Amino acid sequence: MHRTEFIQGYLDKGFSLIPLKNNSKVPAIRWKRYQYKRANLEEVLSWYVTFGEPNIAIITGFKIVVIDADDPSKLPELFKLLPEAEKTTRVKTKRCFHFYFSNNGKHKIKSTKNLFGLGIELKANGNYVVSPPSKIDNFTYHFVIPLSKILPSPEKIIRHLEVALPGIETGIKEGGQAPGVEVEYKKRRALSFPRYNGQDRYCLKQILGKELKAGEKGNKGERDSSLFILYNLLLQNKNRLDHAKKIAILKNNSLVKPLTDQELKKIFRKRYRFKCSTIRETLPYIECSKCKYRFKGGVLGVANILIKNIRKLLGLSNTESRIALLLGTYYEGEYPSMNKIAEETKMNFDTVKNAIKVLKEKGIIDKSFYN
Which tops the pLDDT comparison, 305 or 317? Predict the structure, then answer.
């Protein structure tokens, strides 16, 4: 087959390709943007002009997952555990074989280097594999079983990974490395989630850990609402605007049915200050009981405004103390209006307003509230 036929075959399957250096497995470009967008035939062929005779790799994850076996002695056990591996598309590599399975976005599959405990690698979730007709040290990667015979990802792989690697991988980790998206990160800077400055809202992590479903026509569904709340909560937690956007983009790109760039822009245009009660009403899957920073059962979390400011409490007046106690217990995680506080405490509005001003000056209430 001519290289154009190989490339067209990959593109017809919806695969995303990247160029590798000649006689190498090393990418010839900054490649991670191709985890989320595909090069067309014209762009791929241009690589042969730019880079001479590059090798070609397929991005794994959304459309394809690949079992990368390096040790032939482990194949009998692999075929015993996964009979589909003997029948699906197979590529001869220098050491052993690659076994291709289609995914078509149906499952969110993680990579692992120890599939079924055999020490065999499964490449998915944005990794890449060298593909035919690439050459390394005079060896040419080639199909033993053609691409037309590719089988769907076996349920046994899905079930195994659900046990071995629970949860959804978004690429967002606390202090972890930021993966590439359309936004290129300089010097592979770590993207931490989130930069807390005050309240630690566990609902943020619940949103990140969920495969958000898109709604039907006329109904936005949990995807749109969750991304909007995620973005705004990050801002409430004092993340920079660009930082909050990057995290929302990463989460969106991890979804089976992500929002378009235009739809994301609409989310970023709107600003809203969310209360815990509003989040619970909007996102039924949120479990506030799991938030260790919520006041419950008489226990105050370490991020509670009373605990954080315990030395300052003795210097407060009775009025200021009553308001601080109300915010730190009944309204923990929320900032009700001054009218609501006046109603609850049976104080007049001006008294509440003056007390709030003092609490802000003493750093007990963040200065961004009650402006």
Answer: 317
